[in-house]
Each structure stands twice: as structure tokens, then as C-alpha cells.
Fold this protein.
Amino acid sequence: MRIVETVGSMEGWAMIESTAGWISWGGPLAAALALGLGWVAYRVVRDPGRRTRGALRRISPHLLSDVFVPDGVDGYVHVDHVLLASGGVVVLDVRRYPGVIFGAEGIDQWTQVLESGSYKFDNPLPELDWRVQIVQGLVGQVPVEGRLLFTAESRFPKGRPSRVVQLDSLAQDLGGMVTGRPVPPQWLEAWSALRDSVRRGAAPSAG
């Protein structure tokens, strides 16, 4: 057993539960307001992707999130985020592993340590490299790099492995991919073709 992804928080549920007490004495208007406020708080906690997308858009307006990219063999591959920055295209795989994380590029399995024990999970870098290769085939000569974006719940006491980034230092972690220079016109053309090729929503069927 391993914890791969965390969604939501006790804080979000507590906020919703606290609104229930308002309904009994506040009447319909208070009930509607309370539930509305509770839902807003719940959404903020439940959707950490909103904060991620906001941070990425501050780096570049050219962003594709939660898309399926054609793999060149009549199939599609899901990608969390693809960003066109001044240094090229960045493919970002999001990983939600709370707790202490130990890993390195050349290690087959990484370790997640929680209060309940330690758990192994496969090194996610080869999967990232596969997505980078697929995107590279669609944008031609535009440089493409990949990053694993671990959420704030992850801690790396021995340092983050190669190509692992976190949101609070994302622009700095991307290094040369964010130069501040204008994006070349030919890269914008390649980005437009990539944007037109992706699919959103449910996974497309092969063929």
C-alpha cells in the first residue's frame, strides 16, 4: 500500500460541518450564505491544482493543463501541465506524496515516510521522460524539458532529486527555461500546433 495522491483536507470538511450549525438558527438566507462560504473554502482546499495553474500562468500565459497528447501511434497520453516558456517547453508531472521523500535519479524505487510507516513507489522520472519524448515529437526543434512537481506536503530532508521541483520555488527551479526573453515566433507556431492536437475531458479512444 502507498499513498499516491491526497485530495482535500480535514480543514475543508470542518469548514463545511461548521456551516451546518448556522442553518438551524439563521434562516434560509443565512443557510445559503453559510453553505456558499463553506463551499468556497472546500473548493480552495480540494483543488490544489488551481494554485498550481495560477503559479504557472505567472511564468507564462502559454499553458495547457490536464490534457491528452497524441502519442504518434493512434493513442493519447495524459499530461498534467505543458508550459511554453522563454527557454522552451516544460512538461510537468504532478506528484502528491505527503510526508518525507527519499529518492534519486538512478534509484528504481523511492521511499515515502509517513507516521504510519514507510512505503515504496516506482521512480517517476522514466515516466516523465516518456512524456517529454512524446511532446518533443510534436513541437519539432523547440527545446523540451520535464519536471516532477511535488506538492508542498512533500519534504526532502536529503535534498530534492534531479528534476524535482516544488511550487514555492518553481520559477527558480526551472532555471534556464525561464529567461525573460520573448518566445521566438517559430516556437509559438509549434505551440499552436500542439495546442490544436491535444484533447481534454475523458481519455480519447484509440484510432
In short: DSSP finds five helices and nine strands in the chain.
